[in-house]
Amino acid sequence: MAMIPGRAMVEDASFAAHLRAAAPDRQVEAMVGYLRTRLGVSGADVLLADYRIAGLWGVLDSTTSGRIPLTGQDAAARCFSSQQALVDTGPRGVRLYVPVTVWGERVGVLVVELAEPPSDVLAGRLNVLAGDLALALRAADRDTDRYRRVRRRGRLSMAAELQWELIPGRSLWHDSYLLAGQLEPAYTVGGDNFDWAVNDDRLTVTAVNGDGTGLPASLLTALAVNAMRNARRSGGSLAEQAELASDTIFQHHRGERHLATVLLELDFHTGRVQAVDAGSPRVMRVRGGEVHRISLEEQLPLGMFEEGRYSSQEFWIEPGDRLFVVTDGVYAAAPGEREPYGDRVLAKAIRSTRLQPATEAVGTVMRDLRDYHDDTELDDDAVIVCLDWHGMKTERLG
């Protein structure tokens, strides 16, 4: 009987196959070995963005001295922000920086050391390989803690651990839109969260303002988010998603705990947005440089009453519009008895992002919010979600 060759004996025909053959926690080492032997590079590493999207940290060298601030002008930071490959021929030799991104999720930056500036062919090939690596790293996160350890620069509270496991990602891209979100305080966030999903040319986005603080708030949010997902994945409408979450919360807490949320569903073909406003998160629209709050009928928070029922409303967005969704930890922030951040300062911060993509805009507004707190830890959870709507540009296959 002929012996079936093992995976190690099979010559990989592609980079993706090479990564699949490696253990989840050895993806970067597999990448470096492949680039050395197949493309003749001198060395390589992957820099991952931390939880606050404040710095980049090397997987192979994740020491404090290796941090690259994302607000600086280092080539790696500029590559991450612009999502464009860059060549640096500085004192460290020739280095090519390539964004490691999949479906718009900015994982980090691939750094490749070369003997000479790369040709267009080599740069193009490395760009493709970086995309394969991004997909592999996202999949590997299910089975290893290594990349999370690099990204987190402090210990998460138990509440924050639950919240970060809930979010789908920090950015999402399609020809029709660019979507991004951020949680703060990143390492101690309690009840605020966001969620999104793309199904059948519709984008669903939710922002949650959990009741209370710490672990009880996080558990309440986890219950609500998973109930809304359950209804959505069963084909339920926005109203049905809110109703299942409300009923589930009431069954467990009998009206003593509740949760505020806003649910949005965007139709790619028409720009129509259906909305269920069940509490405090706000929706702001930016059009022509002007910032306006979308006026929605505020319904009761989820879980206040048995068999709570919800109705959806609608508004429209046009190509070029931007939506911000923020929780009360953003617009109601009033540290040191200052005026509430959302009365005037939030609109100013939002306008300042007009030349930035959504992925950069959320960080700009969040940094401005932290500055408003005199750079101290936020005294309430904060969620910012930003959607850039480009309009339906391509026909979906299928």
Automatic annotation (TrEMBL):
The keyword Ligase does not apply. The keyword Hydrolase applies. InterPro entries: Bact_Sigma-Reg (IPR052016), PPM-type-like_dom_sf (IPR036457), PPM-type_phosphatase-like_dom (IPR001932). It comes from the Bacteria. GO terms for molecular function: protein serine/threonine phosphatase activity. Its EC number is 3.1.3.16. Residues 174-389 form the PPM-type phosphatase domain. Keywords: Hydrolase. This is PP2C family protein-serine/threonine phosphatase. It comes from Plantactinospora siamensis. The lineage of its organism: Bacteria, Bacillati, Actinomycetota, Actinomycetes, Micromonosporales.
